[in-house]
Design a protein that fits this description.
Number of strands: 14
Helix content: 40-55%
CATH superfamily of the largest domain: 3-Deoxy-D-manno-octulosonic-acid transferase, N-terminal domain
Radius of gyration: 22 Å
Number of domains: 2
Number of helices: 17
Structural class: alpha/beta
Distance between the termini: 38 Å
CATH topology of the largest domain: Rossmann fold
Strand content: 15-25%
């Protein structure tokens, strides 16, 4: 099956470059560093290399505690961080600066992977969350590179899909040196698909600390919001903004300010156009315009400020959950002590969501109408917001420690690098 998989990749390769060109219309970054996607990663210094792969923004932020632990415990190693998306790469540059080397992941063809491995010469390969690349894993094993999948998660829906190509996935997961799963359910599903040496370590996102300057940024936002009651719609996906505008702007909440932060930067202009078409009074974060009494919506079209938005909001809705998109992560909101409302579609982060609801840090709503009603109730009952605030903080603190467990899994191989 890997032969057929490789053949499909060769057939798809021209389309991948057309895709890069198409995406570059709105994000010119997709035209940059394209040779790295063919394995031409910049050559690295001599000496041991730790390679870590995180697809995009969420995975890169999740990797932050692990990156810091690796740099602290193995300072003489070169840390190579690969991404798939330009926004992931930009996030890595923002978070880690010159302490890591950056590159794009090569397309999963043997010749491209071989070129990448020859130029980067990693002593260990670490992949985050749901990255399963048959040729890449195979070539790492052939070269004797210990390979790990950490902070791994796999929904029931994804497991069923992978199960249909078990002849490809079973040997791929079986080639891993070790796997660190977020939950017992993730571990069970991955084991059934062929993974060995599986440990349950928890979710490293609980170990993420707010970026430096978050407190000051949150204070600046509060001053900008001028005492308004702030409802944050965080990491919204296409179609959700319209539902929220339909139900939440006419609630009769005095001083309500709806802050919308789309999940993907390429949608900032699209959401701005939606607000304009509806005649909504709004300002954009990037414009630096003041929030006036007439402002209904504040469009958060900036990067790297989500923690500050959570800290400055009275209530937050977590996007990707009103529509069947799987939901986004609520841990950052809970850690900031921001009461959370979340929709019915949360299979991507099911256990964390259920645990937050059970702890009293979050409440489930089934549709946009329920979202509006829940928001109004929380406005009317500040004591409930206070209880959710405290519950969120305790919830986030209680689940920390996954990074240490992951490091314990990696350390036998890391110690062989002599760095």
């Amino acid at each position: 099956m890997r032969f057929l998989y490789t053949l499909l990749w060769w057939l798809a390769l021209p389309l991948m470059f057309l895709y890069l060109l198409w995406r570059s219309r709105k994000q010119p970054e997709y035209r940059r560093h394209w040779r790295e996607r063919l394995g031409w990663t910049p050559c690295l210094p001599d000496g041991p290399v730790i390679w870590l792969h995180a697809v995009s923004v969420g995975e890169t932020r999740a990797a932050a505690p692990l990156v810091r632990a690796l740099l602290a415990q193995h300072p003489d190693c070169t840390l190579l961080l690969s991404n798939t998306t330009p926004t992931g790469r930009a996030t890595a540059a923002e978070l880690f600066g010159a302490t890591v080397r950056l590159t794009y992941l090569p397309y999963d063809l043997p010749v491209l992977v071989d070129r990448f491995l020859a130029r980067s010469h990693p002593g260990i390969a670490i992949f985050l969350e749901t990255e399963i690349w048959p040729n890449l894993y195979h070539q790492c094993r052939r070269r004797g590179i210990p390979t790990f999948l950490v902070n791994a998660r796999l929904s029931e829906r994804s497991a069923r899909g992978y199960g249909r190509i078990d002849g490809l996935i079973h040997p791929t997961l079986g080639s891993l040196t070790g796997l660190a799963a977020q939950t017992e359910a993730d571990a069970r599903r991955l084991t059934e698909l062929g993974a060995r040496n599986v440990r349950v370590t928890g979710n490293m996102k609980f170990d993420i600390t707010a970026p430096d300057g978050t407190t000051e940024r949150a204070e600046d936002l509060r001053r900008l919001f001028a005492g308004r009651f702030v409802f944050l719609a965080a990491s919204t996906r296409e179609g959700e903004e319209a539902l929220i505008l339909d139900t939440c702007l006419e609630l009769g909440i005095p001083g309500l300010l709806l802050v919308i932060v789309p999940r993907h930067p390429q949608r900032f202009d699209q959401v701005a156009a939606l607000l304009t078409s509806r005649g909504v009074e709004f300002v954009r974060r990037s414009a630096g315009a003041p929030v006036t009494p007439q402002t209904e919506v504040f469009l958060g079209d900036s990067m790297g400020e989500m923690a500050a938005y959570y800290a400055a909001a009275e209530v937050a809705f977590i996007g990707g959950s009103l529509l069947p998109l799987g939901g986004q992560n609520l841990i950052e909101a809970a850690a900031a002590g921001c009461p959370v409302l979340i929709g019915p579609h949360t299979w991507n982060f099911l256990q964390a969501t259920e645990q937050a609801i059970e702890a009293g840090a979050a409440r489930r709503i089934e549709n946009a109408e329920e979202l509006a009603l829940a928001l109004k109730r929380l406005y009317q009952h500040p004591e409930q917001r206070s209880l959710m605030n405290e519950a969120g903080w305790h919830f986030s603190q209680a689940h920390q420690g996954a990074t240490l467990k992951v490091m314990n899994l990696l350390e036998p191989e890391l110690s062989r690098l002599h760095c």
